[in-house]
Please model this.
Amino acid sequence: MLTVLIVIHIMVAVGLIALILLQKSEGNAAGGGFSVSSVTAMMQPRARPNPLSRATTILGIGFFATSLGLAVIAKNVGPAPSLLNSNPATAAGRAPRVDEVATPAATAPAETAPEAAPAAPAVPTVPKN
Model:
């Protein structure tokens, strides 16, 4: 149930982002919120909602509903365990101490040790005349 609700929530969120980005801004500019034309636009009646804005409203309501559903499910599950207050004794495994860690040389079997290189042949000395 939780996984299904999370998947629906993510799909609604992505769709909501896409619909918001597709809509035409009323100020026709990114900084239109602080211009004189935006003040006059506030005094005018809004245009009829188009299908894009209706879909955005529906997805916004869906996003709100799935957010509330996830919050209710999370409340029923209980609090998540804290990483900061965890007790090392109750951990599933424990980290080895430094003196317990084996070195690669100590763990290698004796028979796999490399053999000594054969001695190089003696270089004959040349007598001086």
Q: What stands out?
A: Helices lie at 2-22, 36-43, 51-77, 104-107.
